[in-house]
Amino acid sequence: MDKKTDKKKKYRITTSCPQCGCGGEAEMSEEELKKKYGDVPNIHLECHECMMVMDATVEEDKKSGDA
Ligand SMILES: [Zn+2]
Fold it and tell me: Residue 54, exposed/middle/buried by CB under 10 A (0-12, 13-18, 19+)?
């Protein structure tokens, strides 16, 4: 559909469970992010290991190689 993703922001979502120590990382576009979590600054995810609800860190994923 889109020829380039230049204009689309990408976000990196990182999680780190304080209880069991597992962590994860995911990348999604702004669209996906909003669709999944809504337009909120803070995302909470459930740990798939221990089901604890934890904060996820969302960072804008800058293009690699640009820095
Ligand atoms: Zn956990």
Answer: buried
